[in-house]
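User: Hand in any protein.

Assistant:
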Amino acid sequence: MAVIFLLFLLFVSSVTACDRCVHQSKVAYFSSASALLSGACGYGNLAIGFNGGRLAAAVPSLYKEGAGCGACYQMRCKDTKICSKEGTTVIVTDLNTNNKTDFVISSRAFMAMANPGKAKDVLKLGIADIEYKRVPCDYKSKNLAIRVEESSQKPYYLAISFLYQGGQTEIVGVDVAQVGSSNWNFLSRNHGAIWDTSRVPSGALQFRFVVTAGYDGKWYWAKSVLPADWKNGVIYDTGLQITDIAQEGCSPCDDGNWKLH
């Protein structure tokens, strides 16, 4: 089992390689942010409060069957007359099935790429040529949180999602156990950022999970998260902060400089 798990993590590392490299693509925007709130990641209305509303739907290679939910990307458009050098940062909350662009983003994020006073000019582009790279998510003093999904049915079924995952990592495995117990049950990824199990321990619950923070992954242990009387729709603090930066699986490309082509 340990060998299989290691091979799985090596596979995950290979498919997430070169995240920090600069990529060339195009980006379009949704005229209404509500189009991203019911996104494939499952964040629902909470998403509007993420990253100042600068949200993104990403293509399958970046969505990664839900593992890419919550990832942050810096992007800028290439028209230097109206677009800033810094661009903006977006957070993935949905899946983009349009193969003409790597991202479809909120109009707020689209305008955030503009130079001062040029937001309307950028918006008129409709579809913009961009370059982008993945960057760490920074939630300042906010800890990783677990939300109990409304679909949970105590005591038979538990569905959760992770919020405010910092750093540049992906959660690839989750276990749950009663506080004080070593009898762990695994959760499966239901869809997007939603994990679930029908083997729900009684009492207060602790979690452990694996994130890609290098080639072998890294375990985190939240020793006491859900109280015995946990409730649907409530967000619980794990007491942990994730700030790791996943290692690259390719030649170094993150030299800190943006190069327009």
In short: Residues 210 and 219 are 5 Å apart (CA to CA). The longest strand covers residues 127-135. The helical segments are 2-15, 34-37, 60-63, 107-111, 119-125.
